[in-house]
Amino acid sequence: KSASEIMRLFAEIHQTGTTIMLVTHDAKIAARTERVLFMIDGKITGEYLLGSYNEDPEELKEREEKLNSWLTEKEVADMKTAEPAN
Question: Which residue, 43, 37, 33, is CA-closest to 6?
């Protein structure tokens, strides 16, 4: 099945009250979720709340752009804190 079909199935399961933890490196997939946790070396270093998603393609594009922007900022910030002090 396609990723969209799988994500729809996850959404149906989630609507019944079941929590789903999905691990992905794909921002297009993550943009369909309500909450994104950013992890480095097994530790949560950031959280981005997207809210519910209603399968609207335009909304998905906006969510993906916002998420990509946040991820870029997060990665840059995390790299700066990982740099050794001179």
Answer: 33
